[in-house]
Design brief:
14-stranded mixed sheet, two-stranded antiparallel sheet, 26% strand, alpha/beta, binds zinc ion
Length: 475
């Protein structure tokens, strides 16, 4: 394809060191002040730790939504409240308030209305608590605010947890509480969850000391192994701009199962995300065929499904410095069901990349729409997130269409619903006879034009001022 290895040694492979921790069945959280409250692991709470072992006794402090959002003038960690060494307890999701003009809906100017911002994502809540020196963070689950039932984190937290090497001062305890158990725990301490929720939504909310301690004990079994990202590069030609790059990416990993004879078999993964990998390969072939001012980096990430680990490692040790990485186009599940008259851009509204996409979609007579389910937080669930956190704007496509040409009106909803319920993350996610790749071909051609537009533009893309990631770009 005319590409070269993107690594400093000219190779195409980047090693990704991984740490796996499996908590022993003896893992417990007890509340000595609230005897005889003896919750059950996995039924009432979930606990994990990146440390080899934990024996922590700490006070509990309720910190509302645990959000620090200067763009909304919101801070659940006021400067004069010290949570160092405490276990902070918080609500899932974002604070939303009724729209003054229409109390039936959420105010769209505040934490993106009924949509989720990155502040509401559980992984970020742990990071913010860690930054404030907390010893632990427990999120009170809520199906509506979290965007999924408790069974989702529960099944994800059973067995081993994969991560990158943790610094010893990283917060030792991360966890979830069911809403029912949190209500009971708070009730024993004389507090009412509904009342705390009301207070947490008021401007000027201040953290509440719960008046109880938690005692967490945990022993991890740890193993270490190495996985790999694939990194390829096509150099730009502009003397000034060639040091900058546009990234096109897809994750190559999926779920597997170890058979009794030790062989690991992949279970499915055709749409998620072999389809995205094939699209990036085709984009690499197309974009390498003609010169561009900026360079392109084509990335295939490992361990997306295990917590974006390949992408997290890449941004820590990038092939091109992050400040010279001007944009990311990340593809996670392409459309295999025919042409669409629209383009769904998950995470629309964050940057000037929207305008590039809109122009190229309009040439095809296609309309750009945003995430149909903004409350689920899909924009924060794939590899481009690690770039957003570093201030690099991204376009993210997750099934980039929904209104199918020459098909019944409910066709898009029906194929998508079948995929999610029967095939997604299951062995059935395989190539099917009735796949129609005409829409995917059109999408890849459009994405090639967008990639080239960004690589050849005089100016690099900019953030929308109200994006929660605009701040990261300034830092
Ligand atoms: Zn995926």
């Amino acid at each position: 394809m005319g590409l070269r290895g993107g690594m400093p040694d000219g190779g195409f492979v980047q090693e990704v060191p991984v740490v796996s921790n499996t908590p022993a069945p003896s893992t417990r959280i007890v509340f000595p002040d609230a005897e005889p409250l003896q919750p059950t692991h996995f039924d009432d709470y979930l606990i994990r730790s990146p440390h080899p072992s934990v024996d922590l006794r700490a006070p509990l402090v309720f910190v509302g939504f645990g959000a620090e959002a200067p763009e909304y003038d919101w801070n659940d960690y006021p400067d004069d409240v010290d949570v160092t060494g405490a276990i902070v307890v918080m609500l899932a999701g974002d604070p939303h308030r009724p729209d003054p003009d229409d109390p039936e809906r959420s105010d769209p100017t505040f934490f993106r209305g009924s949509g989720m911002t990155y502040h509401g994502r559980w992984t970020n809540k742990f990071d913010v608590a860690d930054r404030h020196g907390a010893a632990g963070c427990l999120i009170i689950h809520d199906e509506v605010r979290a965007g999924y039932p408790f069974s989702v984190p529960r099944s994800g937290w059973e067995g081993e947890h994969l991560g990158t090497e943790t610094t010893p001062d990283r917060m030792p305890v991360e966890g979830w509480l069911t809403q029912e158990f949190a209500r009971e725990l708070l009730g024993r301490a004389g507090l009412d969850l509904d009342e705390l929720e009301r207070r947490a939504l008021e401007p000027g909310f201040r953290p509440v000391t719960i008046g109880a301690e938690a005692h967490v004990t945990l022993e991890n079994t740890t193993r270490r192994f190495t996985s790999h990202n694939v990194v390829a590069r096509r150099d730009g030609t502009d003397p000034e701009l060639a040091k900058e790059c546009v990234v096109l990416s897809a994750h190559w990993d999926h779920f597997g199962q170890r058979t009794e004879d030790g062989v690991v078999r992949t279970l499915g993964g055709a749409v998620d995300n072999a389809s995205g990998c094939s699209a990036v390969l085709e984009l690499a072939r197309a974009l390498a065929a003609a010169p561009s001012r900026r360079s392109f980096v084509f990335l295939f990430f490992t361990l997306e499904e295990s917590g974006l680990l390949g992408a997290a490692h890449y941004v820590a040790e990038p092939a091109v410095p992050i400040e010279d990485t001007v944009a990311v186009l990340n593809l996670d599940m392409m459309n295999v069901w025919g042409r669409t008259s629209d383009v769904v851009s998950t995470g629309r509204g964050h940057s000037s990349l929207d305008a590039v996409l809109e122009r190229r979609a309009a040439e095809l007579g296609r309309e750009v729409t945003g995430d149909p389910e903004p409350d689920k937080g899909y924009f924060y669930r794939s590899d481009h997130l690690e770039f957003l956190r570093k201030g690099v704007p991204a376009l993210f496509f997750l099934h980039p269409g929904s209104v199918y040409v020459d098909r019944p009106a409910d066709y898009g909803t029906a194929v998508r619903a079948r995929y999610v319920s029967e095939l997604y993350h299951k062995p059935g996610d395989a190539i099917e006879d009735d796949w129609d790749l005409t829409g995917m071909v059109e999408d890849v051609r459009m994405l090639a034009r967008i990639g080239r537009d960004v690589a050849d533009a005089d100016d690099r893309p900019t953030w929308s001022p109200d994006s929660e990631f605009a701040q990261a770009a300034d830092d």
